[in-house]
Amino acid sequence: MDKLRLGGMALSNGVLVHGPTSWGAAVRGPDGAILAASGTKRRFAANVSTPFVRGPLRLAEALAVLPDVRRALPEARFPFERPRVAAAVVAGAATAGIARRSGLGFVAREAIVAFASLAPAAIALRGGELASYHGAEHISIGTYETGEPATKEHDRCGGHLVGPLLLTSMAASALAAHAPARARPTARALGAIGAVGAAVEVFGWMGRHPDHPVSRALARPGHELQARVSTAEPSAAQLAVAESALAACLDAEQAA
Fold it and tell me: Which among 37, 64, 204, 226 is most buried, taking Cβ atoms within 10 Å?
């Protein structure tokens, strides 16, 4: 039987796994018991194959799962719910706005904007059990896919979007900067959407050509992020939670 292509997300107290049509989540409850739930994904990109459009729609599918997870598993805690992450989002947006209005050169300005945008994610990954659950997510999915014990780093981790997204965002900003002043905010918004679409397409190409020198270079920032910041070796208890999420997702896929 062919293995399903799975994705996932680490929670502050567990793991979310999603497949082509379904999702499964599991968390460690206050009393130490594992609580699990599953459901059907909302589909936005099922019949969409247009490049640059399918990427954002697939990301929207992954995000649309979150309200369903909260309803089915109210004990789940999402990383962005932490107060300091919300504060980092506000501070990052303010820093990006100041940088865009500054007299800095294009490269320096866009570098500040990019790092300000990444700050909330970096802060979310620090502290608590999130990094360990992230590692548990990768190990459970990687082991399922290969049939061999996997490591805490995974080639399809969303962290590998960092390299492509930095490049596409800089290109979009450069194009938006040439728009008339009154149209510039709209151009930047459209450019941000286009940058995500282009980055997802590049990410897909990287997955198909993992040994290409360009692919390896683009994957390097994401690999370093995983190895040094975003993942940690999970405990046996955390791995058990990830395995429960994986089993819930596979059961839901089989029943669909």
Answer: 226
Q: Backbone phi, then psi, for 104, in 5-degree steps?
A: -65, 155
88-99: burial string, b at 16+ Cβ within 10 Å, e else:
bbeebeebbeeb
**Is the pTM value of this prediction over 0.70?**
yes
Catalogue the E-assigned strands of the chain.
Answer: 7-11, 14-18, 22-28, 34-40
CB 70, CB 4: distance < 8 Å: no
Nearest CA among 61, 55, 58, 62 for reference residue 198: 55
- Quickly count helices (H) and strands (E) in the chain: 8, 4
Nearest C-alpha neighbor of 169 from the set 188, 146, 144: 188
The Cα–Cα gap between 50 and 73 comes to: 34
Task: Tell me the C-alpha distance between 37 and 26, whole Å.
Answer: 6
Low-confidence ranges of the chain (pLDDT < 70): 1, 45-46, 48, 82, 84-86, 88, 92, 100, 106-107, 110-111, 114-127
pLDDT in tens, 17-59: 999 999 999 999 989 999 999 999 987 766 767 777 777 777 7
CB count in 10 Å sphere of residue 133 = 31
Q: What is the DSSP letter of 4?
A: P
Residue 165's nearest CA partner among 211, 123, 206 is 206
